[in-house]
Amino acid sequence: MSSTFLPPNSAAHNPTAGGSLLQPRSNASNPNSSRVCYFFDSDIGNYHYGPGHPMKPTRIRMCHSLVMNYGLYKKMEIFRAKPATKREMSQFHTDEYVEFLNRVTPDNVDSFVREQAKFNVGDDCPVFDGLFEYCSISAGGSMEGAARLSRDKCDIAINWAGGLHHAKKGEASGFCYINDIVLGILELLRYHPRVLYIDIDVHHGDGVEEAFYTTDRVMTCSFHKYGEFFPGTGELRDVGMGKGKNYSVNFPLRDGITDESYKSVFEPVISQIMEHYQPSAVVLQCGSDSLAGDKLGCFNLSMRGHANCVEFVKSFGLPLLLLGGGGYTMRNVSRAWAYETGLAAGQELNSQVPVNEYYEYFGPDYRLDVRPNNMEDLNTREYLEKIKVQVFENLRQTGHAPSVQGHVEPRFDRDRDDDDDDDDDDADAEVRASKNRKYTDRRVQKEAELSDSEDEGEGGRRDRRDHGGRASSRSAEKEKGPSILQPLLDRQREREREREKADASSGSAGSAGAGGLVNGHANGHGHGNGNGAAAQGLDDAAKGAGDGDKGGPLMGGDEKMDEDPSHPPTAAVAAASQATTQQQQQQGGAGGEDMDVDADTRPSSPPPTAPPPARTATDDAAAPSSSSATAQ
Asked: Which residues belong to the active site?
C-alpha cells in the first residue's frame, strides 16, 4: 500500500521549557514494543453538523493538534486512509441508504422528504454539506486500520474519527450515519476467527450489537448508562439470539460512576471474557462522553480513569483497533484521546499542554487532565456486584471458545446483485476485500498537511424489536427511547426556568428601587436608596455569574460555554445583563450587547512549529485472497 508517514527519527515538534514532552511509560506492559498506526484526514475538521449541534468534528482536529505538538509522530506511523467507497459501505448498509447519503445535500433535501423519514435523518442526524465525504473518511480509517492489523503491519491502529456505533443497517441514529465499527470488524473477520468489541461510551453500542446479535464470531461488550437515556437498549438480559446467545454482554450503569467503581467492574469482566472467549483481535470504542462534565454524559470518570480501560485492554497483547465515538466537551475529548494515543505508543505525556493552534481552549490551567467532579455516584457496591455476578453466569454458559470450522464470515444481504457496478468512482476504486489485489491509498498525504489543524424506561425492552428483526424500529415511535439530545434539552429548560426566576427577582428589585426613588423625592434621599437596591441586585447577579464561570458542582471545575454558539446564558448572566442595562438606562447610557462565541472559530495563538516533511513508503504486501462467504 502506498502510504505516507512521519519518520520516527524526526526532530521534536515543540518541546516545553524544563523537560521533554514525552517519557516512556515505565509501568506499561512492553512499553516500546507496540507498532502503532494512526489514521487522520485533515479534511475531517471541515465538516459541521450545524449551528448549536453538539457533535463537532473539529474535536478530531483539536486532538490531532495535541498529538503532533506532543511529538507523538516520532513514535508511530501516520496515515491518511483511502475514503470508503459506496460498495464498501454496502457490505453492511443497504444500497438504498448508502445511495441516499451520497445524493442528499442541504440544497436538495426538500426533495427527499420520504427518505428522511425512512432513514431517520433529521434533527439528531441532520443533512449537512459534505455528509457522504465525512462518512467516507470515518469508515475508511477504521477499515484501513483493521486491514493493517490483519496483515500484521501494526499492533495497534487508531482512528479517532471512527467509533460511530449507533448507525444501523438502513438508518442513521445518534449523530451516526455509517457504522465504521461494523465495517472494520467485518474486515477483521476475514483473517481472525473471533473478534471482541468493547464499548466504553456513555451510550449503549446498539448499532454494533444489533449487527452481530446472532453470531458467535463477534462478542460485544458495552458499559453504558441505562434507564431513561438514549438509545434505551442494553439491558442486562439482552444477551444475543441463536448462535449469538450469550455473546452480547451488557453492563448497565447508573449516573455518576467513578474511576474506582468503573475499574472494579471493567477489569474483571474483560478478564473473564478473555478467558472464556479467547478473541484473536479486539476493537475498543473509546467514546469520551463518559468523562466527567460532558454535555450529554452523566458519568464521572477522570481522563486517567477512562484511559485505564485502554491500558488494560492493551496489556493482553492482542491486535487492537482504537476508535473514537461520543464526546461533546471538545477540550476534554481532545485531551483524553491525545493522552490515550500516547499510552498506545508507550509514552507518558507531559501534563502541561504544548502550544498549539487551539491552545486557548485548554485554559485556564492548560493541563492535560480531566478531573472528576463531586456528583453523587448512584452505583452502589451491591448493585455493581449483582450485575457482575449475572454477567459472569452468562459468560459461563458460552462454554469454550467457539470453533470457526465450518463458520463463515457474517454477511449482510445486499439490495442488488453483487455483480452490479457502482457509480464511476466505485467502479474503478481499489476494494480492500477484493481478491489478489494490494491495499492502495489513492490519496497521498501532502507535505505538512497534518499540521492543520454518545433501569428500563417506559418503552420497555427493545432487544426483540431491534435485534430480532420482527418489527422495525421506525414502526413503533412510542417505543423509542429518549433522544440523544435529551440531557442538553433538559439543561436548557432548567436554564430557562432559572432565567424566569431571575427576571422575576430582578423585576422585584427594580420595583423596590423605583419605590425608593419615589420615597426619596419625598424624603430627600430616595435616589441613594433606589440606586442602592439596583446596585445590590447587580452585585448578586455578577457573583452568580462568576460562580457559573467557575463551574457548578456538576460542571467538572472549569467548564466554559465556548463550544456551542447557541448555548443560552445562565440565569445569573442574564440577570447581570438586565441589571446592567437598567443601570445604564438610568444613567442615559446604551445597553450592552451580548457576545456570541463560535466554538468552531479557532482562537488566535502562537502558531506551532510545522512537523517534519512527510515521506512516502511503498508497502508491497498484497492482501490474501478472501474466502467465499454466504449470508448467515
From this structure: 166
